Amino acid sequence: MGFNQSKADPSLFTKGYGSEFLALLIYVDDILVASPNLSLIQELKTHLDNAFKIKDLGTLGFFLGIEAHLDSSGLNLCQRKYTLDILSDSGFLDCKPVSTPMVPGHHLDKDNGTPLSDAGSYKRLVGRLLYLTATRPEITYVVQQLSQFVDAPTNEHFTAAHRILRYINKAPGQGIFYPKGDHLQLKVFSDSDWATCSTTRKSITGFCVFLGSALISWRSKKQATVSRSSSEAEYRALAATVCEVQWLTYLLKDLQVDLSRPAAVFCDNKSAVAIAENHVFHERTKHIEIDCHIVREKVTQGLIKLLSIPSSSQVADGFTKALPTSMFNLFVSKLGVQDLHAPAYRGVLEDNVNKEEKGEKGNKLNSLYVNQL
User: How many whole angstroms separate alpha carbon 52 and alpha carbon 54?
Assistant: First the structure.
């Protein structure tokens, strides 16, 4: 039918331009179609049905266990049913919720605790939590930490995994929100936690990428080599981040999203920014692998613009370490997540207002509630 397969994502097929644009995303036998022209979608479905006898599920509601809710304000993606299934299978539906997925300052080690007699249950739980990070970015760091011990888990690792269950039980319907009419520019935050692994002394890379105000990519991963300084660790994190930005640029181009300005990459380490912008090799950088200097190349090409920010404004901080409650709540708020299944405030507030008489107290309350809403 004239579709072109994306080089950035082999599962994506595109065709046409503008109002005639058609995108097709395939995962085994699950297919997602998007287009501004409904007649093109219907034509494609008819063609596929004649060839394969497909089942038309209508407007997007579920895809690969992810729930999609589209309205006039934007798109919300969550995994509420998947989350409740995890909690039910683990016996944590009625557990006491906690405010953070990991105790601040707690570091997991392979030698801590007693080895589990049934390691399979731990592996299955971590595997399910890994897929949950598709719509719950705030648990990415903790799940990354737990994933390091699937070969020989202990009771302490299992206890840490149970804390995540207690956290997601607090708001099982929480997911990512993509607002409509947003300005399409890439804003990227890159961070690292130097030598955080007590066993290998390797650092953690964390980054998050926003298209406008919508979070579209994030990662928390241990670096492959040991860094000699925090600046080197930050520079390696920048290299991984820039590679992700380059890939996203190719993908967005296939989706006909024109990025007119360079991606703004924010880093809270001035030395790492200086290394990236300095084209002269010197004693402090000659031991760093050549592939890390892709940052310099992309700065020169105009793909990214490096900007230094204070650590207090670093959004990616929650992808490199466990944060205390106040900082964690601020981190979650910056990610643009929301819970569509949470009880609406309006009904509760209106009930309170109705209980008041039409006196001065009731008028003040009503004015306050309207301003909050």
Answer: 6
Structure-block tokens of residue 119: 């390691």
The model carries a pTM of 0.86
Helix or strand (DSSP H, E) at 132? helix 119-132
Q: What is the longest distance spanned by two Cα atoms in the chain?
A: 76
pLDDT at 182: 72
Residue with tokens 């998947």: 82
Q: Could you give the percent of the chain with pLDDT greater than 90?
A: 70
Q: Rounded to whole angstroms, how far apart are CA atoms 178 and 176?
A: 7
Question: For position 283, what pLDDT does the model report?
Answer: 53
pLDDT tens string 193-211:
998 877 788 999 999 999 9
Residue 190's nearest CA partner among 176, 178, 204, 200 is: 204
Backbone angle region of 181, left / alpha / beta, with phi > 0 → left and psi within -120 to 50 → alpha = left
Tens-place pLDDT, residues 233-242: 999 999 999 9
List the chain residues with pLDDT less than 70: 279-287, 289, 291, 343-373
Task: Classify each residue of 113-147 as buried b or exposed e, where b means 16 or more C-beta atoms within 10 Å of its C-beta.
Answer: beebeebeebbebbebbebbbbbbbbbbbbbbbbb
Contact 189, 319 (CB under 8 A): no
Domains in the chain, ordered, with CATH? 4-58 (no CATH), 78-168 (no CATH), 182-309 (3.30.420.10), 345-373 (no CATH)
Measured distance CA(319)–CA(139) in Å, rounded: 8
